[in-house]
Amino acid sequence: MQAVDFYFDFISPYAYLAWTQLPALCARHGVQLRYKPILFAGLLNHWGQRGPAEIAPKREFLWKDTHRMASRLKVPFSLPKTHPFNPLLALRLALPEVSMAQQEQVIDAIWSAGWVQGAELSSIDALHQALTASHLDADVLLDRANQPEAKATLRAATEEAVRAGVFGVPTYHVAQELFWGCDRLDDLANFLAGKDPIDADKIRAILTNYSASADRVKSK
Amino acid sequence: MQAVDFYFDFISPYAYLAWTQLPALCARHGVQLRYKPILFAGLLNHWGQRGPAEIAPKREFLWKDTHRMASRLKVPFSLPKTHPFNPLLALRLALPEVSMAQQEQVIDAIWSAGWVQGAELSSIDALHQALTASHLDADVLLDRANQPEAKATLRAATEEAVRAGVFGVPTYHVAQELFWGCDRLDDLANFLAGKDPIDADKIRAILTNYSASADRVKSK
């Protein structure tokens, strides 16, 4: 069975919006959805990039843009109590090594708490409450998420994402192709349906013969 | 008459794709389209951001993504001979102070030469040829574009864009609202039709009371 790897961080409103669509999209195309929690800040650090919330006018645009997108998708959308927030504990809870057979329920509980109910996703109390409300054993899950092994696993997962070429969230990875952005779900769906309009191999071949100079032009 | 300011750099394939749609979109909504050539590299330098072509997997995604988008829009799409290229001369030609009453023809000629015919847009010869083919007086235009005044004007235009909060291209600016991205033309159209689904003022107000901490979380 083909699988889509969904790279996300609870900090990203675009990843939240993608999550509202992705399970149904994958089910429609008969592909498995694999959840890949990673630390977005780790991607930014690796690629030497600033986060969208770190550029004031981009931050303002981002909030308007995500509200517009939520409206178009007809899904609930609330801002978490603070943003950006420290997503580390939430991400560790979402690791398959921590949430195990309950991974999907844990992830659903955290997304809903933060982006539907507006909870403080860096707070252990808020996470405890969200897990409990979803009939999950919060004490056991939080205990596992706080082990050093979980911290190492999240670091390794983020490094693995970097090696796979992931540079942002949400990213969907399927059969060597990366699709980036909540607004690229249609492209993913086309690809899964065998209707990708481009020849990705041909484009890759063109690029290898193409100027790869990354020198910036300076105004003079 | 309401006006849309279109901030662009000939280096951006997304700005090219937006240009293929924007004149008709503005005409449909009875608004003026004002062309604002700016140096994308100047935006990146100001906001401390890396360009998409400077991150290897993002560069590959970008080319596939723009090919997919061109296919969806049913517009021709060729890669300029080199990329990134030095767009300064092309941008100066596009300034209203240089191309004057012929600004739209000059801009159309340059976009078509680079992104339809695959010309080398940093080359004075290629630009001369493109202008001439469009029945423009290439010698006069290039002479004006090479004056120190034109260089200063492009620098000032880029600085003005930064002050307006422009952080990327293409950006459409209308009535205090910035829309960023070739994939946000529908949002611009909704806004022009009075159908923006969000209350932008309300979101701005929320943001001022919201944590603006830009500290990154470090994996630990």
What general outline of chain A do the C-alpha atoms trace? globular
Multimeric state of these chains?
Answer: homodimer
Terminal Cα separation of chain A, in Å?
55 Å
Are there runs of chain A of 5+ residues with pLDDT below 50, and where? none
Q: Which chains make the largest contact?
A: A-B, 68 and 68 residues
* Overall mean pLDDT of chain A: 94
Rg of chain A, Å, rounded: 18 Å
Biggest sheet architecture of chain A: 4 strands, mixed
Order of helices and strands of chain A: EHEHHHHHHHHEEHH
Strand content of chain A: 5-15%
**Biggest β-sheet: strands ordered side by side in the sheet of chain A:** 2-1-3-4
Structural class of chain A: alpha+beta
Number of DSSP helical runs of chain A: 11
The tally of strands of chain A reads 4
Q: What portion of residues of chain A is helical?
A: 40-55%
Short description:
The structure is a homodimer of 220-residue chains. The first copy, chain A, is of the alpha+beta class.
